[in-house]
């Protein structure tokens, strides 16, 4: 609850903070259904054709270090993220059909 309260106060005090969080969420994509062999380099190459990427992250298990089969790609612009979502959702990547959605902001 403390976190939500602080975030709410921040949004009221700094309207630009809300815009930054919203902008990040709309330019950040969730990518699911990844092959356990897909790494960040492969993901960046596949999505990079749709625009400038800020960050790529494949989520891995802490103990084994193996991919959990999903990750995130954050683009510089909302337009690039939207294009990538439309073009990449359902596409074959490393032998698997991936699912792409806008990432939830929290």
TrEMBL record:
SMART domains given in the database record: RRM
Cited PROSITE patterns: RRM (PS50102)
TM regions (residue ranges): none
Gene Ontology terms for molecular function: RNA binding
Database matches in InterPro entries: Nucleotide-bd_a/b_plait_sf, RBD_domain_sf, RRM2_NsCP33-like, RRM_dom, SLIRP/GR-RBP-like
Pfam families per the UniProt record, alphabetical: RRM_1
Keywords of the record: RNA-binding
Domain RRM: 27-105
Source taxon at top rank: Eukaryota
Gene3D superfamilies: 3.30.70.330
Cited SUPFAM superfamilies: RNA-binding domain, RBD (SSF54928)
Name listed for the protein in its UniProt record: RNA recognition motif domain
Species: Macleaya cordata (Five-seeded plume-poppy)
